[in-house]
Write a structure and sequence with these properties.
Blueprint: E1 11-16, E2 21-26, H1 54-63, E3 99-105, E4 112-119, H2 163-172, H3 208-211, H4 216-221, H5 241-247, H6 255-274, E5 285-287, H7 297-300, H8 314-324, E6 328-332, H9 340-353, E7 356-361, H10 364-377, E8 381-384, E9 389-390, E10 396-400, H11 401-409, E11 418-423, H12 435-444, E12 450-455, H13 461-472, E13 476-480, E14 488-493, E15 504-508, H14 516-537, H15 547-563, E16 569-572, H16 576-585, H17 594-607, H18 613-616, H19 619-629, E17 632-635, H20 641-652, E18 658-661, E19 675-678, E20 682-684, E21 689-691, H21 694-701, E22 713-718, H22 726-734, H23 748-755, H24 762-767, H25 773-776, H26 779-794, H27 808-829, H28 833-838, E23 843-847, E24 855-864, E25 870-879, H29 887-890, E26 913-921, E27 925-932, H30 937-947, H31 959-974, H32 993-1008, H33 1020-1044, H34 1052-1064, H35 1076-1083, H36 1088-1096, H37 1105-1112, H38 1129-1151, H39 1160-1163, H40 1169-1176, H41 1181-1184, H42 1192-1216, H43 1219-1231
Parallel strand pairs: 5-13, 6-12, 6-13, 7-10, 7-11, 8-10, 11-12, 14-22, 16-18, 16-19, 17-18, 19-22
Antiparallel strand pairs: 1-2, 3-4, 8-9, 14-15, 20-21, 23-24, 23-27, 24-25, 25-26
Catalytic activity: ATP + H2O = ADP + phosphate + H(+)
Main location: cytoplasm
Keywords: ATP-binding, Cytoplasm, Helicase, Hydrolase, Nucleotide-binding, RNA-binding
């Protein structure tokens, strides 16, 4: 305030209340002054005396409650009476018509007979409540991708529920009031049960009369066997009476014989029950003969949907015949064999039938190429990619497999008219990241869609076709080619200069023969040059080549190919950096004529003419123009997409003579060369360096040889260092290609998309995956076997023995557990070096198996069996005339046969003691004793085998055999309870905690066997055999039930764990109903959990669109190493927030036991945040490339994928009703969609 202005405001003091408080108040100025007036905050003269005292107010409030403000009528809610409008009841919305009038005609004459009213099925069904193809179209039926609120169409191969079937099942359903009634209400954590508590052990045995048991004493006391009661006497079950009829056939038989017959009949019945006939599995794949010519091809198809100027091959004709029959086919053909012909005929058929065909490819670049190729043949072709939609209503739509998956999940109405789905490059299903998409699409396709699978040659085509046929329940016809249309010749090149350019050695000829002489010549050439170098410069180990040597090698190779007229050539190199270096070193190379240079220049300038001025002068554009004029091309992911298309088109014209490329160029691109050169046969697969797989080598080498131009294709491997091993070359070149293997895995997006539709189950998706094929292909056979077992189990009778009925079944389970645990421990011991050393000839052991029950034996020999199991030849005591065969050894793979484990008393022959050889397994050894004796093993084995022959069987045993046999007799008689065994912990020094715990459990079980009552039964052996037959049936029943249930699915535990994560994050509720967060996650195609959490935590709403684009760039950028970006404060906060959410999700996954939980903190790469931020702010592309060392092509790819992610988040904002976020995401996606990053593809122009 300026000096002199403070006297304009006049203040005074005012006493407030009765406590002496004072406030400063302004004094009102006179009317003629211009001093501003300040508002009064208090009464100018204090509290008026008319106000009551505080005591009076308090007494009034306490005594008269009606005066409280809550009872003030002026503060009450006001009500306006509703205006009556009865005329609104006169109009009612029209319900959909449920019936229609149909004409009845005479089927012979067609004469009108009358009319009838019939029910219209699927009335009222829409895309929001039905999976039927007969439902009404969705509101946005022109939206090719569908909508996340739509239901998908019912997947083919699944049993679609029909109303009549459901009603029939309900009418036939029998409700068990004991087991089928639920005791927990929906949404309640627990319920109430009315069952009586079951006691774990039975101490007091019930009375015999109450148990209705027949004991041995009762049977012996009967006068007539007819009085024997074998259980229920109602006589309704005829199967139960079979045994009784067999017993009472002859009354004159004594009672003991009748009992024996009873046991015999039960045993025979049990044996019959176990022996089930093996059912034959159904084959869905049909192999088509492509060796024999199709003579009547044109008779079967007089008017073809499409013709070609050449005669189709046999495999093409076979495929066309099946397409005409509306069959699905799997074509596995060599590279450049002509698989595209089959795809073209399917498109022509759909045009003829006025239906649609979808052609799917693994990568976007291949989709663009196929669009151009098919556009030259057909007029009605469309392209649908992440950022381009051309002619979406066309009869033939080309797209990536991910887009087709989105259409299937979102119930796109395009699926209604779909006749063919063509899957190109099916071997891409082996891709660990994207292979699951192929399986999802094949499973979700409706039944009316036929599939055409196109693939390179793979060894398990029939297996894959069987899987597709099983899940779709239709035959798949497998068509394969026997050989390449253009044979290949494989060479080794050891030269390093123009002087040695003739060092080209044929390794595999055009007939596929591996030439050892060629390999030896390559070795000799390398060895000779190395010896000359060592003489001139001294010994030197040379495993590779320096940049100068690399240049000389490539110049010599190209010069050699040029002289032999073997250009154009593709040089596959597995490093982008090395490709750029090779192209840079060949600046002096010129392979084109002046006319070719002019043609290249015109095409190049025309291609980049639509780019912005600064984009035309990018360093990569200028460098590429110079290289292409000289006939040199570069093709890898770091090159700008428009430049890669220029290279591809010029190579297709034959103007690019040498093309340095990564293996992506071999992915489906129909651009064969005359020669293929491998810079190396080793590559880094993301984990480590390895040799090329046979499938990878065949795919790349298959680019050599142009059909109709070249008689053979040439494949050359450069030997810059040492010549590769012959075995490695043979395996890579002539080995079997990689099998098609399932890469199916659960994703949160898949789970949520299936959970939002009540009729679909995630378990059904897992059952139909390729990974579960072998487990699910025998389901029908398992069901038949289960029905047979049900009948067998229904006639099982309990053992009617007072002694055995108490604990015989528990004893059987204990024996089973004991033998299983014993086998596991013995097998573990047999892998321990000290234990193996102790099992040498002369060691006394105790044997316990089905033939030798707790018998002493001495080891004579140890060897390995046919199943790689360790077997022992032992000498054991036996009764004379008894020969122990190796029956148990033969059935080693059939599992454990449960036998009774009785108290351990050493076996001693009852009659004259004899000896015999026995072959036993490791798990037959019950105890490895501390005792050893001296044996002459070879002599003993030879003598015993000699006396097994008829002419020597009366010879007395040799001295070596007699000494050992007498020692076994002495030890048996002196130690009837067994010999002391070696302690696994002390003697074998086994320190594994798990083993020690299992060993203690085994000892506890062993000590408990003497406490069972059933072992005292006089008919224990017969009863044990009977209970074993019964338990085998029950165990087999449990096994089949398990195989037919969801519990047998490999991925079921992971699914349950992921569901716990989704519940914890509130994506689903306890009843697995998808919540709002789950619906939002269905809109997101990448990192759905992280982006959804960002949306719901309101991280993006307050940010600028450029900041949003920069933050979300980490979701699509994948390069591991790049320069560190300079981030603003807002970007750093966004990065930290993403890492915080990622750590929370990762923690939740680990808490719920997901062992394969992604390390989200390592998944996100923030290297392009600064680049995307400046690009969104409008900086030219030439400027943003200076902010990072990431190559231009990767930047473009990242921004293109980011545009799709921003669109996904925009749709998520629409679902949650956030207009601010919706507008910002729309703006963010628009500001990055410009210039060279989103330049139109040359294939679409």
């Amino acid at each position: 305030m300026a000096e002199g202005e403070n006297d304009q405001f006049l203040f005074d003091l005012l006493q407030i209340g009765c406590n002496g408080n004072v406030e400063v108040i302004p004094v009102q100025p006179k009317k003629d002054t211009k001093v501003p007036t300040l508002p009064l905050k208090t009464l100018p003269n204090g509290i008026p005396p008319v106000l009551p005292e505080l005591n009076e107010d308090l007494e009034k409030l306490l005594t008269c409650l009606d005066d409280l403000p809550i009872h003030d009528i002026n503060r009450a809610q006001r009500f306006w009476p509703r205006e009556k409008q009865p005329e609104r009841l006169y109009s009612v919305d029209i319900c959909p018509v449920q019936t229609t009038i149909q004409v009845e005609r005479n089927p012979t004459t067609g004469q009108l007979i009358g009319f009838k009213e019939s029910f219209i099925p699927d009335m009222g069904k829409s895309s929001n409540n039905s999976l039927s193809l007969r439902r009404s179209p969705s509101v946005n039926y022109q939206d090719i991708r569908g909508n996340t609120i739509n239901y998908p169409f019912w997947p083919g191969g699944m049993d679609e529920p029909i109303l009549e079937n459901l009603n029939q099942e309900e009418s036939q359903m029998e409700i068990n009031l004991t087991t089928d009634l639920l005791n927990t209400a929906p949404n309640m954590p627990s319920g109430m049960t009315f069952e009586k508590k079951k006691t774990e052990s039975v101490e007091v045995l019930p009375v015999e009369s109450e148990m209705k048991l027949t004991t041995l004493v009762d049977i012996m006391a009967l006068d007539d066997i007819d009085d024997l009661d074998l259980g229920d006497s109602d006589g309704e079950d005829t199967n139960d009476s079979i045994i009784e009829q067999n017993i009472v056939d002859d009354d004159s038989k004594p009672k003991d014989e009748m009992l024996e017959n009873l046991v015999k009949v039960v045993k025979e019945a049990d044996e019959d029950k176990v022996k089930l006939p093996p059912p034959k599995p159904k084959e869905w794949a049909v192999c088509v003969d492509t060796k024999s010519p199709v003579d009547d091809f044109y008779k079967k198809i007089p008017v073809m949907a499409k013709t070609w100027p050449f005669e189709p091959d046999v495999f093409q004709k076979q495929a066309i015949l099946h397409l005409e029959n509306n069959d699905s086919v799997f074509v596995a053909a060599h590279t450049s064999a002509g698989k595209t012909v089959i795809a073209e005929y399917a498109i022509a058929l759909s045009l003829k039938h006025m239906t649609k065909t979808i052609y799917t490819s693994p990568i976007k670049a291949l989709s663009n190429q196929k669009y151009r190729d098919f556009k030259q043949t057909f007029d009605d072709v469309g392209l649908v990619t992440g950022d381009v939609q051309l002619n979406q209503t066309a009869s033939c739509l080309i797209m990536t497999t991910e887009i087709l998956r989105s259409m299937l999940y979102n119930g796109s109405d395009v699926i209604r008219d779909l006749e063919w789905v063509i899957f190109d490059e099916v071997h891409y299903i082996n891709d660990s990241e994207r292979g699951v998409v192929w399986e999802e699409v094949l499973i979700m396709l409706p039944d009316h869609c036929n599939v055409i699978l196109l693939s390179a040659t793979v060894p398990n085509t029939v297996e894959f076709a069987n899987w597709v046929g099983q899940i779709k329940r239709k035959k798949i016809y497998v068509i394969s080619t026997q050989k390449r249309p253009v044979p290949l010749e494989h060479y080794l090149y050891t030269g390093n200069s123009n002087k040695t350019s003739n060092e080209l050695f044929l390794l595999i000829d055009d007939k596929g023969n591996f030439l050892t002489n060629g390999y030896k010549k390559a070795l000799e050439a390398k060895k000779e040059r190395a010896s000359k170098r060592s003489q001139n410069f001294g010994a030197k180990v040379n495993r590779g080549a320096n940049p100068s040597q690399e240049k000389n090698i490539w110049l010599s190779v190209i010069e050699m190919l040029k002289s032999k007229d073997q250009l154009p050539a593709v040089a596959f190199t597995f490093s982008k950096k090395k490709i750029d270096e090779n192209a840079y070193h060949l600046q002096s190379l010129d392979l084109t004529s002046s006319s070719e240079k002019n043609e290249i220049h015109v095409f190049f300038q025309k291609s980049i003419n639509k780019l912005k001025g600064s984009d035309k002068s990018l360093p990569q554009v200028i460098l590429m123009a110079d290289m292409l004029k000289r006939g040199v091309g570069v093709h890898h992911s770091g090159i700008l997409p428009i430049l890669k298309e220029v290279v591809e088109m010029l190579f297709g014209r034959g103007l690019v003579k040498i093309l340095f490329s990564t293996e992506t160029f071999a992915m489906g691109v129909n651009m064969p060369a005359r020669t293929v050169v491998f810079d190396s046969i080793r590559k880094h697969d993301g984990t480590n360096f390895r040799n090329l797989l046979p499938g990878e080598y065949i795919q790349m080498a298959g680019r050599a040889g142009r059909r109709g131009i070249d008689t053979t294709g040439t494949v050359i491997i450069l030997c810059k260092g040492d010549v590769p091993e012959a075995a490695e070359l043979h395996k890579m070149m002539l080995g079997k290609p990689t099998k098609l293997e399932s890469q199916f895995r659960l994703t949160y997006s898949m789970i949520l998309n299936l959970l939002r539709v009540e009729q679909l189950r995630v378990e059904d998706m897992m059952k139909r995956s390729f990974s579960e094929f072998h487990a699910q292909k025998d389901v029908s056979q398992h069901k038949e076997a289960l029905a047979t077992l049900n009948k067998s189990i229904a006639v099982i009778k309990d053992i009617e023995c007072f002694t055995c009925c108490v604990d015989l079944e528990k004893y059987f389970e204990a024996c089973s557990q004991y033998l299983r645990l014993k086998r596991d421990l013995q097998l573990l011991i047999l892998t321990h070096p000290i234990a193996l050393k102790s099992l040498s000839p002369g060691r006394i052991i105790i044997i316990n198996n089905s033939q030798l029950k707790f018998a002493l034996g001495v080891i004579l020999n140890t060897y390995t069996g046919t199943h790689n199991e360790r077997l022992f030849t032992v000498l054991v005591l036996s009764e004379k005339g008894v020969d122990y065969t190796s029956e148990d050894v033969k059935s080693v793979m059939n599992g454990i046969k449960v036998r009774p484990v009785l108290t351990k008393k050493l076996y001693e022959p009852e009659g004259p003691c004899w000896h015999s050889l026995a072959t036993i397994r490791g798990d037959d050894i019950d105890v490895i004793t501390v005792k050893t004796i001296k044996v002459e093993a070879d002599k003993i084995i030879s003598d015993v085998k000699k006396r097994q022959q008829d002419r020597f069987k009366d010879n007395p045993p040799s001295k070596s055999v007699s000494v050992v046999a007498q020692e076994l007799i002495r030890l048996t008689q002196a130690n009837p309870q067994g010999l002391k065994g070696l302690d696994p912990v002390k003697d074998f020094r086994i320190k594994d905690i798990d083993y020690i715990e299992q060993f203690r459990s085994l000892q506890f079980l062993e000590e408990s066997f003497g406490e069972y009552n059933c072992i005292h039964c006089p008919l224990f052996d017969e009863h044990f055999e009977q209970i074993r037959g019964n338990m085998e049936l029950k165990n087999e029943y449990k096994r089949l039930v398990h195989l037919l249930s969801d519990d047998s699915l490999i991925l079921l535990p992971e699914y349950q764990q992921r569901m716990e994560v989704l519940r914890s994050l509130n994506y689903t509720n306890d009843q697995n109903t998808v919540q709002l967060k789950g619906r939002v996650a269905c809109e997101i195609s990448t990192h759905e959990l992280i982006i959804t959490e960002l949306v719901f935590e309101n991280v993006l709403t307050d940010l600028h669109p450029a900041d949003i684009a920069a933050i979300l760039s980490c979701m699509v950028f994948e390069q591991k190493r790049c320069s560190e970006p300079n981030l603003t404060t807002e970007l750093e906060k966004g990065r930290d927030h993403i890492l915080k959410i990622a750590e929370n999700v990762s923690r939740l996954q680990k808490e719920h036991g997901i062992l394969t939980a992604e390390d989200y903190a390592e998944t996100f790469k923030f290297g392009l945040m600064e680049v995307v931020f400046e690009w969104a702010r409008g900086l030219p592309f030439s400027e943003i490339t200076k902010l990072t060392d990431v190559q231009e092509g990767i930047i473009v790819r990242c921004i293109q994928r980011l545009h799709e992610t921003l669109r996904d988040v925009r749709n998520a904002a629409r679902i949650i009703g956030d207009p601010v976020l919706y507008q910002k995401m729309e703006e963010a996606s628009n500001i990055i969609k410009r210039d060279i990053v989103f330049a139109a593809s040359l294939y679409t122009q």
